[in-house]
């Protein structure tokens, strides 16, 4: 079906991203996966390309675009090539909305220019070994001491945690109350070079191997009070405000992954022969690809509506939950079927379908598990 989401500007941007991937990513991607992250200067190249600043207002050096569509193009082109931009997604889709909405004018002038250039890469540290999706259970503390907070605790599963220059750390600045477990949380924008800030293990994952994921620890880290993001004690409110966009970002990547899987499989079965015929000539192959293409089309329709809703300021947390739940489940089914059509070669990492398969598994976990999303949707429909 004809797609109407993108205009000529978006398609010109797509051409730029596609050429950049061919020149700067694809030839080196196996090295990135072996290392566990891109080289640090790759982010400076993304900065030079201008992709970090698309949604940053012009007064801070950005392009001033408010639409999410440019980020959707990046997701689609990365999936099409079977690659990833490492910590890019966290930097732009997770951290930037917090800075734009909650940073003070002084903080924006200080942080956004290096954010745009890639000089200052960012990430966000919410999850702790004992909390997972239960953010109200956060134990990391930040106690006021004069003009500093003293930060103590630990975080895990922190994407971008190895190379980040500034880390948004969610910490408890005051105890929770019996009436509200979510009270007392704040967000500190911590300089990762601070004394007492330590990057622990770089976690070895089954997928997304070019994206660094780490454990962090904080031992009496002194954070200037001017690096508090927004107001003290309102951290949980801030976190929930950005969840819709975060989940839409995951849903968009999941849809793009499923679409790419169909294209990889389509090309493979047209070239591969068995019993003297191309794999594409068998009825089962045709039916499987038809099923996958139909699911991808349904996911695309949902994604396009959700992106338009986000751009209009109308995407609700329940809407985003629906998009993420559906698109991640479609991704899992479609990628699995497309890998099956590759036969044994689908299990070999030199084929992009194998990377799509291992990368896909976490989509139903991070950003809110499928089970958590179902509870949000059920509440929304008043079940």
UniProtKB/TrEMBL annotation:
Its cofactor is FAD. This is Acyl-CoA dehydrogenase family protein. GO terms for molecular function: oxidoreductase activity. It comes from Actinomadura sediminis. Keywords: FAD, Flavoprotein, Oxidoreductase. It comes from the Bacteria. Belongs to the acyl-CoA dehydrogenase family. The keyword Flavoprotein applies. Residues 7-119 form the Acyl-CoA dehydrogenase/oxidase N-terminal domain. Its EC number is 1.-.-.-. The keyword Oxidoreductase applies. Residues 123-221 form the Acyl-CoA oxidase/dehydrogenase middle domain. Residues 233-381 form the Acyl-CoA dehydrogenase/oxidase C-terminal domain. Pfam families: Acyl-CoA_dh_1, Acyl-CoA_dh_M, Acyl-CoA_dh_N.
